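=== Structure Prediction Worksheet ===
Name of assembly: unnamed complex
Input type: mixed (protein and possibly other molecules)
Chain count: two
Listed entries:
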Amino acid sequence: DAGITQSPRYKITETGRQVTLMCHQTWSHSYMFWYRQDLGHGLRLIYYSAAADITDKGEVSDGYVVSRSKTENFPLTLESATRSQTSVYFCASTHSTGTDTQYFGPGTRLTVL
Amino acid sequence: KQEVTQIPAALSVPEGENLVLNCSFTDSAIYNLQWFRQDPGKGLTSLLLIQSSQREQTSGRLNASLDKSSGRSTLYIAASQPGDSATYLCAVTFTGGGNKLTFGTGTQLKVEL
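=== Predicted Assembly ===
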C-alpha cells in the first residue's frame, strides 16, 4: 500500500541494548524526518534527511544514529538505549520542505526498561 | 529561540459550538504553518497548510488564518461534532532553520454530546 509505514509499532527493550526503528515511504519523497513525542515537550526533531546519503541532526540527536542508503528507507538506531529514550517515535516525509505538507507514519511506542 | 505556543492546552465544548484554537510563534520569518490533528495512539494527520504569502486556508468546516506580522494563527472549527475530539497541533517551518518543523504542544479538544 502507498504511504509511510513504521516498524515495529511497539517495542520493549532493556537499557544498553541497540534498537533500530524502521521507516519506509512509497512516494519517493526527498525529505524524511524522525521525531519523538513526549508529554510536556510535544514533538521534537531527532534527525532529518534531504536525500539519500544526506542526513543532519535535529534538536535532540544525542544517542541516535540514522542512515539513508535508499530514498524510501530511513532507519533510526538507538546505539545504547537509555530510559530517557522511552517515547513515541514518528517518522515523516515530504516532497519539498518549505512548501509541502509533511506526512506522518503511525508511530513506534518504545519502552526502555 | 524560535518557538511555537498553543493556548489553551485543553478545551471542552458542547456539540454544535463554533470554536477557535490559537497558535503563536516567535519569529515572523516563516515558510509556512501547518495544522495537524492527532487522535489518541495515532499518528498526525495534516489538516491545513498555509504558505507565508497566504492569509487563510479552508477545508470543509475548518478555516485557518495566518498573521505573520503578529506571529499568530487561528484554527476555526465550525459546528463542532464529537468526532472532532482530538489533539490539534500547530507547526511552523521557520526560514533559516534548515526547513524543519517546530511544533507547539497542542490543544486537546473534547466535543461533548
